[in-house]
Amino acid sequence: MSVTGIICEYNPLHLGHVRQLETVRRICGPDTAIVCLMSGNYVQRGEPAIFDKTVRARAAAEAGADLVLELPLTAAVRSAEGFAESGVQILRAVGADTLCFGCESGSADALMQAARAMQAPDFPERLRAALKTGVSYAAARQQAAVALGADAAVMSRPNDILALEYCRAMARFAPQMTPLAIPRPGDYRSASPCAGAPSALAVRQLLLAGGGWQALVPSCAQELFAQAPLHALPFGERAMLARLRALTPADWAGTPYTSEGLWSKAFRAVQAEPSVQALADRLRTRRYPMTRVRRMLLCAYLGIDSRTLEAPAPYVRILAFRERGRAVLRAARSRAELPLINAGELPPDGDYYALECRAADLYSLFVQPDALPEAGCEQKYRIYRKKN
Questions:
Q1: Contact status, residue 320 vs residue 37, Cβ threshold 8 Å
Q2: Residue 332 and residue 35 in contact, taking contact as beta carbons nearer than 8 Å
Q3: Is the peptide bond before 12 cis (omega within 30 degrees of 0)?
Q4: Where among 292, 327, 362 does a domain terminate?
Q5: Model pLDDT for residues 193-220, shown as the tens digit of each residue
Q6: What's the rounded Cα separation, in Å, for the pair 54 and 41?
Q7: Is residue 341 part of a domain?
Q8: Domain shared by 11 and 72, yes or no
Q9: Across 259-286, average pLDDT
Q10: Which residues contact 289 (CB under 8 A, 6 or more apart)?
C-alpha cells in the first residue's frame, strides 16, 4: 500500500484542500492511504487555530483523509525550516513514500533543484556575502541560491518557499520520499472570498463575521463548523497580555526567536501596549518580521523555551482515522520508530504532556465569548470537548 503524506493546518478546511485530496487520489491511485499531519490548536503564524484540533481533524477525515495525526505543538510553531523538517521526519516514520504539497509553481523539479543549490558546500559563504550588502535574509538567500542554479521564481512566492523547505527536508531526512507538487491557484493571503480557490484567511474572516462561508467549505464540514466554537486571538487578548506582563526578564531571555535586544524590548513594551497587535507592531523590524514576532509572543504565552522548542517531540497524537488509516497505524507501530498516542492514552513523556495540557487550557481562553453563554470560557471548552 502506498502512503501519501500532507503537512497541513486546515485552518479551516476549505474547497481548495478538498481538491488537493482528490488530486492525490487521482494521481497516486484509489488505494493510496492519505496521511494528514495537521497542526493542533496553534498554527505556524503564531496564532490560535479557529477551531479545536479535533473539529478540524474530523472535517479532514470526512473529506477523504485516511489518517490525521497532530503535528506536535513545538513543531507547529517553528519557523518554516523547522516546521518542514519535523513534518517530513514524522511522515517518514509512519511510512509515507510521497509528500504532496500545493505551491504556486507546481514544479517539483524546480523546487528540488533549488533545494540542491541550498545544500551546496559554498552556499553558506555566498549567503554571508549577500547579507553583508545590507539586503534582508530572504533576499540574500535568494541571491545565493540563484547564483548556484536555482530558479528565482521558486524563491520568492510564499507557498513555493514553504514547498522548498519540504524539498530540503526530504533531501536531508527522507531521500526515498517523492515530492508531489500541485499548482495552487489564487492568493492564499487574499481576504476576498473566491469560490474557485478560496483562501483560509477569507474563510476565517467570514466565520468570524457570522456568515457567507458555507459555499467555500465542503458540505461534509458545514454543519460541523456551524456548531463548533470559534477561537481567535482577539477573544483572548487580555488574558495573553496579562500572562506576558507577568514574565520576568529571565523568562523572556529563554523565549525562542529572541536576541538580547528583542527580548529586552519586549519586556518593556508589553507593560505599555494595549493590544497584542500593537505590541507586535512595536517589535517588528526588518530583521524580525511579523511572523517571527508573533511566534515569539505565542511561545512566551505558552511557556515554551528555546530548548523545548528545538528538541524533537517525544510522541505524536492520533486525531482521526478511517479503515485504511488503521493499516498505516499497524505498520507504523510495527516499525516502532515513533510512539503514536491515542486519545485518552497517557503519553510516555510527562514533561511534554504537561506542556500539552497547559497549551490546551490556555487555548480555551481564545474562545468566542458568546459561543456557549451558559459557562465561562474554560468551562465552555471542556463542555464542548466532552459532548463531541
A1: no
A2: no
A3: yes
A4: 327
A5: 776 678 899 999 999 999 899 999 999 9
A6: 9
A7: no
A8: yes
A9: 93
A10: none
Higher pLDDT, 88 or 151: 88
Which CA distances in Å does 99 have to 8, 42, 184, 318? 11, 22, 15, 19
Domain of 169: which CATH number?
Answer: 3.40.50.620
Same-domain pairing of 57 and 98 = yes
CB 298 within 8 A of CB 42: yes
Are 294 and 277 contacting, i.e. CB atoms less than 8 angstroms apart?
Answer: no
Q: What is the CB neighbour count within 10 angstroms for residue 21?
A: 21
Is residue 10 domain-resident? yes
CA angle at 187 for the pair 184 and 193, rounded to the nearest 5°:
110
Which three cell numbers mark 96? Answer: 509515507
Q: What is the dihedral of CA 281, 285, 291, 292, to 10 degrees?
A: -120
Range of the domain at 96: 3-104+157-231+314-327
- For 5, the enclosing helix (H) or strand (E) is strand 3-8
Nearest CA among 233, 310, 302, 245 for reference residue 272: 245
Do 77 and 217 fall within a single domain?
yes
Q: Which residue has the cell 503524506?
A: 5
The set of cell numbers assigned to 250 is 529571565
pTM for this predicted structure: 0.91
What span, in angstroms and rounded, lies between the C-alpha atoms of 102 and 106?
Answer: 7
| Contact indicator for 58, 320 with CB cutoff of 8 Å | yes
Residue 102 half-sphere exposure, CB side, CA atoms within 13 Å? 18
Q: What value does the mean pLDDT take over residues 146-172?
A: 91
